[in-house]
Every structure is written in structure tokens, then in C-alpha cells.
Specification:
Layout lengths: L2 H7 L1 H7 L19 H15 L3 E9 L5 E9 L3 E5 L6 E6 L2 E6 L4 E6 L6 H4 L5 H4 E4 L6 E7 L8 E8 L7 E9 L5 E11 L22
Antiparallel strand pairs: 1-2, 1-11, 2-3, 3-4, 4-5, 5-6, 7-8, 8-9, 9-10, 10-11
């Protein structure tokens, strides 16, 4: 059974795994219209803010289109490493080791893998992917909030992700990633909100490894 078929029969699992279901473009050709200079400034600042993060830990809240919510801890490290830990109560892990992004489901002993450049979190995992080339600024009416919509209009099957930054002088680059909203080709929406950001913390590479549940039924602690 594919992970999509499995999730369609398990709504709560879909709420948890929704972070990896909205794909971003694998090809970063500049398909978005040219942006005004002022807009390009905020786009460039957002790109710079992401590139300046060496390590980050933050608490997250993830909500699907039905209002089901899961909480956990996000860990990010430069070099394409990321981990969404949903805690001991949920046998699910989303993790990238810098080369591939994995959805690890310990309940059914399944592992799904995506190359990072094809992953839905490409804008976070690979800071060399210039958001300003394939994203556009979305007006918010609030000068302290920067919203960027990322999608490829020539590949609607990849869906869309909107990243929302809040101006904060204590954050790298003066912008703090506060929220992102993923919308897949079927208009299924997943919202991830971050809080309690901790920058520059010590993060071991071992945090981005996992025990393969296909070889052991016991989840690593």
C-alpha cells in the first residue's frame, strides 16, 4: 500500500504526515513573474534569513484541513538536515539527513523517501534554492509580516507552500519564520506554526538518523 493510500484511510496519520505531502517544484526555472524592486527586497531578505540559520530548535503545532492538530519539536541544521519529532505518543517521524527526506511510520513499519531536491520542504532544506526566483510576495497589510508564496504555475501537481515571516531583530537576518501553509493539488491544507525558537543550539548529526522499522519493531528513544 502506498503512503497516500494509507493516509487516506487514517485521517490522524494524514494530519501528522501532511508536512511532506505538498510537493514543491523540483526544477527551479524562474517561472514566477518578475517582482517589483521593493518586493524583491523582502524576498531576498527572507532568503538571507534562511541561509543564516546554522541550527534551530522550535516547538511546532501542525493542523490539517479537518482541524486535527499534532504538536512536537522541529530541529533544523544547516546542510539540509531537519527533524519533526511528534513525541512518544505518535509513532511517526519526519527526518532528513541532508541527502534524503524520510517519512518513518513505526505503527505500520513503513519508510517513504524523497530526494531533498524533490521534497516539499526544499525551500527550508536547501538554502541555495533562491526563493526569489520562483516565489512571490503576498501582501499582508502588516509591515512587520512578510508572506511568500512558492509554487510552479507550470506544475500545479506540485502544490504550493506559503511561508510567513515576522520581523524580529533577534532572529538571523531580522526575519523569523513563524508559519507555513502547504496546499496540495487536491486543496488539502496543512498549517505548521512555530514558537519558542532557539537559534545556534548544539545539535548532533545523530539527531537526523533513525532506526529502520522494517528491521526492528522497536522505536528508537
Amino acid at each position: 500500500m502506498s503512503i497516500f493510500a494509507f493516509l487516506s484511510k487514517h485521517p490522524l496519520r494524514a494530519a501528522l504526515a501532511g508536512v511532506v505531502l505538498c510537493a514543491l517544484p523540483a526544477s527551479l526555472a524562474p517561472t514566477a513573474p518578475a517582482v517589483a524592486q521593493s518586493e524583491a527586497g523582502d524576498l531576498n531578505r527572507a532568503v538571507s534569513a534562511l541561509r543564516q540559520i546554522s541550527t534551530l530548535k522550535a516547538d511546532f503545532s501542525q493542523t490539517d484541513r479537518l482541524g486535527q492538530t499534532a504538536n512536537g519539536v522541529l530541529t533544523l541544521k544547516r546542510g539540509g538536515k531537519i527533524r519533526f519529532d511528534y513525541g512518544e505518543d505518535q509513532d511517526l517521524l519526519v527526518v532528513s539527513n541532508g541527502r534524503s527526506l524520510y517519512l518513518v511510520d513505526y505503527e505500520v513499519n513503513q519508510v517513504q523517501r524523497w530526494p531533498i531536491r524533490n521534497s516539499p520542504l526544499g525551500a527550508l532544506l536547501d538554502p541555495e534554492r533562491d526563493i526569489s526566483r520562483y516565489g512571490k510576495l503576498v501582501q499582508t497589510g502588516n509591515p512587520d509580516v512578510v508572506s511568500i508564496e512558492v509554487r510552479d504555475p507550470k506544475r500545479p501537481e506540485f502544490g504550493m507552500i506559503t511561508m510567513i515571516f515576522v520581523r524580529d531583530v533577534t532572529a538571523p537576518g531580522g526575519l523569523e519564520l513563524n508559519t507555513w501553509v502547504a496546499l496540495d493539488a487536491q486543496n488539502n491544507r496543512t498549517t505548521v506554526r512555530l514558537r519558542n525558537h532557539r537559534y545556534g543550539v548544539t545539535v548532533a548529526d545523530s539527531e537526523f538518523r533513525f532506526r529502520d522499522p522494517r528491521q526492528s519493531s522497536r522505536r528508537p528513544r
